[in-house]
Amino acid sequence: MAKPRKRREKRNIPKGVAHIQSTFNNTIVTFSDINGNTVCWSASGGEGFKNSRKSTPYAAQLTAESAAKKALDNGMREVEINVKGPGAGRENAIRAIQSAGIKITVIRDTTPVPHNGCRPRKKRRV
C-alpha cells in the first residue's frame, strides 16, 4: 500500500524575483526567492490557452495573475522583475503582477542579444 504523502507547507518568502519569459509562442511567469529557488510558476498553456492563443497579451495577463496569486499565498510582498524575450505579453504580465498587490522594486530586461551568432529564421511571406 502506498505511503500517505505529506502536504508541503507554504513557505514565507517576503522578497523574491519574478522571471517573465515571453516568446513568440508562449509566456511563462516564474517566482523565485532571492537565491533563485523556484517558489511557484504559471504558463499560458496551463491557464487553458492552446495553440496561437497562448501568445496573446491577455493570456500573459491571466498567467501573471495566477502566478502572483500563488506567490502571495507564499507570503511574497516585494519582487524584482526579470523580463526575457520579445513576446507580446511582456508589459501586460508586469501590470498584472503590480495589480495583484505585489510591490515591484526593479524591472530588468535580460533578453539575450546575439553578437551575430546563429542565422535568424527566414522572413514570413503572408
UniProtKB/TrEMBL annotation:
GO terms for cellular component: ribonucleoprotein complex; ribosome. The keyword Ribonucleoprotein applies. PROSITE patterns: RIBOSOMAL_S11. InterPro entries: Ribosomal_uS11, Ribosomal_uS11_bac-type, Ribosomal_uS11_CS, Ribosomal_uS11_sf. The keyword Oxidoreductase does not apply. GO terms for molecular function: rRNA binding; structural constituent of ribosome. GO terms for biological process: translation. Pfam families: Ribosomal_S11. It comes from the Bacteria. Keywords: Ribonucleoprotein, Ribosomal protein, RNA-binding, rRNA-binding. Located on the platform of the 30S subunit, it bridges several disparate RNA helices of the 16S rRNA. Forms part of the Shine-Dalgarno cleft in the 70S ribosome. Part of the 30S ribosomal subunit. Interacts with proteins S7 and S18. Binds to IF-3. Belongs to the universal ribosomal protein uS11 family. This is Small ribosomal subunit protein uS11. It comes from Flexistipes sinusarabici.
